[in-house]
Design brief:
There is one protein chain. This protein has 41 helices and 31 strands. It is of the alpha+beta class. The protein folds into seven domains: 169 residues, Cyclic Phosphodiesterase, Chain: A (Alpha-Beta Complex), CATH 3.90.1140.10; 136 residues, no CATH class; 172 residues, von Willebrand factor, type A domain (Rossmann fold); 198 residues, no CATH class; 97 residues, no CATH class; 224 residues, no CATH class; 114 residues, no CATH class. A hairpin with a 7-residue loop joins strand 8 and strand 9. It comes from Noctiluca scintillans.
């Protein structure tokens, strides 16, 4: 089952006419108003973006019998603090939901009843929400929704409509959405002057120019162009002749031709476009559409016969009629007696026939005569277009050509003595022209007139307009791309287009134009990359040899595929130079030969020694092997590569490559090297059987890196390092980018940390010491290449210097945007030969803590983080109510109250006698015991004083130790490498205190980036001592106090929710825990539940876990919803939508064996909850007979 992603959704979008009213409600209270358009979610989370196209097709079939919806909102509703509009057509929406759910059985759906709603606001609590609803007049909004919208977005960006599925249209229902993301617009309707300005701007006749081209845009009424026959009657139809190759070689694709004939017949049924068909093989003849549909492919190919048939059709048409010819072939002429004479005669006929003629061509498969088709498309009175259709693209090419000629009209534009033949597009009785010509063709004044000519002459004055974003895209469309340099230039031009700079009413159209232009450029990228790889594979080089092992990956993001294509073309040019450099290297000197003999390395595959491969080959070199995991992110971010193990043994690269080729032939790429699996956010573990072959230690390997060995050996490696790294990271020798050279230092950092780990014996002993020393030399030798790349601005987009010096200089260089991996810094420092200084230790460990605390608190209410910071600033008394109640203490729930909640749980479970149950009912009613309010809601703000470290050193040291214990597991990779400093050893107490305050204060990469931008993240090394520490503390204190003064009530509510969750965690009786859950978080939602989950996540370290009574039982209750057989939480349904990240923390908290037992108890089918009586609903479904479309199966979290 696919649990879906929150980056996509299947939703209903109300009609635009209803938006002003809806957006007025949302703008003040919905924090997502700039992310989501008004919507009713049908399925959310939804399938990943790459699966949406197939999902849309299945949804189209599933909803074929449904009709567009008429939705009316006449009442408000709320889920706790969330307000919404409730639609009054719930039956139709339930039917739609069931159809969609049934179409996508692999998608996990939330374990709750389907409750269609349109969110309009989120409030701090339920009371505020209800007050808002009560203050609003009853809504009355009516809208029609005719389509399902498949929404998608990038992280931190608004949604856009990727696809639409029109209800009731079946297989024809899927249509493209928008390329531009949703943007919140003013809720007031535009005034008439704005609409008028938009209309005038859209139909303006104007010209624009830069140094290269002039763009002419104008519109003319079609009837003013004199579109009439020679008899004087209006020309009622365009004439298009489709000339189709019917030879025997078309048998496999002839069905595509017939499909598109059906399409053209349907589209031209209104009579504005008349189509003629010519079929040709050995002979040619004009036929009807029905005859095309009844015909079959056979015979040879005779272009001469086709020309004669075309001439016969054209001659039968009235003089002056505009004629478009679409000539299609899949091969060469095989039957004409004199093709040159036939072609010349046809060209002369076209010139003298007295009719405007445009010839378009379609070449099908690689065997067609491209040169011949290029020749005939220039024979018309203006240049035609050409389409190349691959084996499966003939139908699409024909349809595109028909759509083009259906709306185009050939005319003459004339300015002064200069004239141009071009096509205009006829839409709604207007003919619109948008053409670009070289600037040096026409001399233009500020005000000019263009004459538009067909059968009549129309003079149109043009205004001058400045160049805009649309001009840039049109310039891209008009640029001829013949070389890689042309493509790079045009790609830069298109990348410079900024939709936000266009006028509002242009942005949608501009976004679509840019998307289409990029699609065209992507085809060029693929073409040049293919040619580059073909050229490389024909040369005898390392790159060519590795190309035979290249992994043909399909990436989830088109941008990644485009990046790989661009790299292939840019890197291919270095291949020949590489060969020349290798051949020019000097012979192996005696000192290096002696060094190799002393090292005694031998390849276990070929039996060759290192000195033999250096003497017998000018390209080969020695490598060591690794087992690595390559998530798809590695294409963009090489540091995402994960080194799982460094294996024993060294090999000649040629022998390693030969072994790899055999493994790939036998097991395929995925089984041999693992391909690209998962992502950084969603890692996927490789099977232990994935690998190329086993080394001397019996372990499977799937990657290799070169050794240094000696200067001569390194010289070979240095020349070939780009394809080596390209293949190591991307499985493509032409996939190199400079970031990979930086990431190589991260591999060294990982090896150093593995070696230092006391409990890990995988990289120990004399061999490991030799390997790491040798690889350090290699990285040191590559540092000049890395520094050159850093100085070029290629890494992180800014000019950089030495990574270690920058890191020590300022927190601005420590962000994840500037240094994606701390392993890189570890490797860089070792390669530089720099001994770790106290300044390095402080900066490194503080950033290490900040990153790991960011992971710990991700998805956890920020109040838990603030509470820890307040304890570090103010000591035990962080929030005190008017009666002096301590708001900090990890509330030990009182025995008296726990007995009350325990009794309530047993009452709800039905374990009490009738007499005791009646006593509980009389005492507590239906609401149960009163939940403690740790901090009185009637208290008022009182200022606090910051502690100095000396005033409570023991207390503060305890807090520091407790917090560091929670991230000890995350710090472990580098703890032993720096003498335990990652765990706080080697620092003074006050140093640890202020470092932890800095790390906690800047938890979250966005928070850190903002602090760096504002200059509020001070360098801790420069703030040592009493005065510096006081400055850091004072800044944080002022921020906290400002928030408390202005939002005291909200601060109290947030802290009470946290303290309530702490009380629940502290219970020593599982029934008391259950009773508190029943009253504070009966469903899996709300602040208390979120805090409870966050507190349990923080128990992933052993010390914290030991402080929580009944930890395993409490985790089991939250995940399964049950205690024993009693349905305690969420009607006893399992928490199947618990995030994998949270599940992993909980697994670490209770231990693997206990978690597996809990996970096993969660297995089963969960979904729609029916009434307890088990009486079937109107659809015949109940708990004993659930609707299969509304339930799902849980079979584990698959944590790996």
């Amino acid at each position: 089952m696919d649990e879906g992603t929150k980056l996509t959704a299947l939703a209903l979008i109300p009609g635009l006419s209803s938006w002003p009213t809806i957006q007025t409600l949302r703008v003040a209270h919905d924090p997502q108003v700039h992310v989501w358009p008004p919507h009713i979610n049908i399925l959310y989370p939804f399938l990943p973006e790459q699966s949406c196209a197939l999902a849309a097709e299945r949804l189209a079939v599933a909803t074929a019998a449904l009709k567009p919806l008429r939705i009316r909102f006449r009442r408000f509703g709320h889920f706790g603090p969330t307000a919404f509009l409730e639609p009054d057509c719930s039956e139709q929406l339930e039917e739609l939901f069931a159809a969609c759910r049934g179409a996508l059985p692999e998608l996990q759906v939330a374990n709750r009843p389907f409750a269609p709603h349109l969110t309009i606001g989120r409030f701090n609590n339920t009371t505020e929400c209800v007050d808002f609803i009560s203050s609003c007049p009853p809504p009355d909004i009516e809208t029609e929704v005719s389509a399902l919208s498949l929404l998608c977005r990038e992280p931190e960006h608004p949604f856009r409509t990727l696809l639409r599925v029109r209800l009731g249209l079946g297989e024809l229902a899927v249509e493209q959405g928008e390329s531009q993301v949703y943007a919140f617009r003013s809720v007031t309707a535009p005034d008439s002057s704005e609409l008028e300005a938009k209309a005038l701007d859209h139909h303006v006749n104007m010209y624009q120019r830069d140094d290269d081209v002039v763009r002419v845009v104008c519109s003319v009424q079609a009837d003013r162009l004199g579109r009439r026959t020679e008899s004087g009657a209006p020309a009622s139809a365009k004439r298009t002749i489709f000339v189709v190759d019917q030879s025997g070689s078309m048998k496999g694709a002839y069905g595509q031709v017939q499909d598109v004939v059906r399409y053209m017949t349907k589209e031209s049924a209104q009579g504005k476009h008349r189509i003629h068909y010519v079929l040709y093989n050995k002979t040619a003849r004009e036929v009807t559409a029905q005859e095309v549909l009844e015909s079959s492919a056979s015979g040879t190919t005779n272009f001469g016969a086709a020309f004669e048939a075309i001439q016969s059709v054209v001659s039968s048409l009235s003089s002056g009629v505009h004629v478009s010819i679409v000539f299609m072939t899949d091969g060469q002429d095989t039957a004409s007696k004199d093709l040159k004479s036939s072609t010349d005669h046809f060209a002369e006929f076209v010139r003298s026939c007295g009719r405007p003629v445009v010839i378009h061509t379609i070449g099908f498969t690689q065997s067609h005569s491209h040169e011949f088709l290029e020749k005939i498309r220039f024979m018309g009175t203006s240049e035609g277009t050409h389409r190349y259709a691959k084996d499966t693209g003939l139908e699409e090419s024909f349809a595109q050509m028909f759509d083009l000629v259906d709306v185009s009209m050939q005319i003459t534009l004339q300015v002064g003595s200069r004239s141009l033949q071009c096509d205009g597009l006829e839409v709604d009785d207007q003919v619109r022209f948008d053409v670009l010509v070289p600037s040096n063709s026409w001399e233009m004044e500020e005000h000019i007139t263009v004459t538009v000519t067909l059968n009549g002459h129309v003079e149109v004055p043009l205004e001058y307009r400045d160049v805009d974003q649309v001009f840039l895209v049109r310039k891209v469309d008009n640029t001829d791309v013949r070389t890689q340099q042309d493509l790079d230039r045009v790609q830069r031009m298109l990348s410079s287009v900024e939709i936000c700079k266009a006028k509002k009413w242009q942005r949608q159209e501009l976004g679509d134009m840019r998307k289409d232009a990029q699609a065209r450029l992507d085809r060029y990228h693929d073409l040049f990359a293919s040619e580059a790889r073909t050229g490389v594979s024909s040369s005898v080089s390392l790159t060519a040899e590795l190309s035979s092992l290249r992994h043909e990956a399909t990436f989830s993001k088109a941008r990644r595929a485009r990046a790989m294509a661009q790299r292939a073309t840019s890197n291919a040019s270095t291949v020949q130079l590489m060969e020349q450099f290798l051949k020019a290297l000097p012979p192996l000197p005696p000192d290096d030969l002696a060094s190799l003999e002393l090292q005694g390395l031998c390849c276990p595959l070929s039996g060759e020694s290192a000195e033999e491969i250096m003497q017998n080959s000018y390209r080969d070199f020695f490598v060591f092997t690794l087992s690595v995991l390559r998530p798809e992110d590695v294409i963009d971010a090489p540091t995402a590569l994960q080194v799982q193990q460094v294996l024993s043994g060294t090999y000649s690269h040629s022998a390693f490559r030969s072994g790899s080729e055999h493994a790939i032939r036998v097991s395929g790429g995925e089984g041999a090297h693992g391909g690209f699996v998962g992502s950084c956010k969603h890692p996927v573990a490789l099977s232990s059987e994935v690998g190329l072959f086993r080394g001397p230690d019996g372990q499977m390997m799937n990657a290799c890196l070169p050794l240094y060995l000696c200067e001569s050996h390194f010289a070979r490696v240095r020349v070939q390092i780009k394809p080596i790294l390209g293949y190591f990271f991307t499985l493509d020798p032409l996939g190199y980018k400079g970031d990979q050279c930086i990431a190589l230092f991260g591999v060294l950092g990982t090896m150093l940390s593995l070696q230092a780990m006391v409990f890990d014996t995988r990289l120990k002993g004399g061999w490991a010491e030799w390997l790491i020393a040798d690889f350090t030399k290699l990285c040191r030798g590559l540092q000049p290449l890395a520094l050159e790349y850093l100085a070029s601005g290629g890494y992180t987009g800014v000019v950089r210097g030495d990574l270690l010096e920058e890191f020590l200089m300022s927190p601005a260089w420590r962000t994840k945007e500037r240094l994606t991996s701390l392993e890189v810094l570890v490797g860089w420092a070792r390669a530089s030969g720099a001994e770790p200084s106290p300044r390095f230790h402080m900066a490194f460990v503080e950033e290490l803590w900040r990153r790991n605390l960011t992971a710990l608190y991700k998805g956890v209410p920020r109040e838990q983080l603030f509470e820890v910071l307040e304890r570090l600033l103010y000591g035990p008394d962080t929030l005190v109510d008017e009666e002096g109640a301590d708001g900090d203490a990890a509330p030990s729930s009182s025995a008296t109250k726990d007995r009350e909640f325990s009794l309530w749980a047993r009452y709800r479970r039905g374990d009490l006698s009738k007499k005791d149950a009646e006593g509980v009912r009389r005492k507590y009613g239906k609401d149960g015991p009163k939940v403690e309010v740790p901090i009185s809601t009637s208290s008022s703000y009182e200022p606090r004083r910051c502690l100095r470290y000396e005033e409570a050193a023991d207390y503060l040291d305890g807090i520091v130790t407790d917090v560091l214990g929670k991230i000890r597991r995350a710090n472990i990779w580098v703890s032993d490498l720096f003498g335990g400093r990652a765990d706080g050893h080697g620092f003074l107490g006050q140093e640890k205190w202020i470092m932890l305050i800095q790390a906690l204060r800047h938890v979250g990469n966005d928070v850190m980036n903002t602090a760096v931008a504002k200059g509020t993240y001070l360098n801790t090394w420069e703030c040592q001592g009493e005065e510096g520490a006081s400055h850091i503390v004072r800044l944080l204190h002022e921020r906290f106090e400002s928030s408390r003064r202005e939002k005291w009530s909200a601060c109290v509510d947030r802290r009470n929710a946290l303290l309530t969750a702490k009380s629940m965690l502290a219970t020593t009786d599982i029934d008391a825990f259950a009773g508190r859950c029943l009253l504070s978080c009966p469903t899996r939602g709300g602040d208390v539940f979120d805090h409870l989950v966050g507190l349990l996540r923080a128990c992933s370290d052993r010390a914290s876990a030991q402080q929580v009574p009944l930890l395993r039982e409490k985790v089991a209750a939250l995940l399964t919803g049950r205690i024993g057989d009693w349905r305690m939480l969420a009607d006893g349904s399992s928490w199947v939508h618990c995030s994998k990240e949270t599940a992993l923390y909980l697994k670490e908290a209770v231990g693997e064996e206990s978690f597996e037992q809990i996970e096993l108890a969660m297995y089963g089918t969960w979904g729609h909850v029916y009434r307890e009586s088990d009486i079937p609903n109107r659809h015949g479904h109940c708990n004993s007979n659930p609707n299969s479309n509304l339930v799902e199966r849980f079979a584990g979290f698959r944590l790996g």
